[in-house]
Write a structure and sequence with these properties.
- The chain has 65 residues and is α+β, with helices and mostly antiparallel strands.
- The protein has a domain at 23-56.
- The chain has helices at 2-14, 47-54; strands at residues 30-33, 36-39, 42-45.
- InterPro entries: DNA/RNA_pol_sf, Rev_trsase/Diguanyl_cyclase, Viral_Replic_Matur_Polypro.
Amino acid sequence: CKYDTIALLNHLGKNGHKVSPRKLQYCQKEVKYLGHLIEKGSRRISKERITAVLQMNPPITKRDV
């Protein structure tokens, strides 16, 4: 896990991408990314994201859509 993470961070850095140490989820079986829960072989929407979408007001005008 440690060596794979270091290799990934090096690859991202060489290609001009920046990584926030504060947001790093190191050696976890499941990580949260952009409202999704990602684990080996699967991705699903987080409960918080589902709740937020369900609480949104429905669109009224064409522009709202």
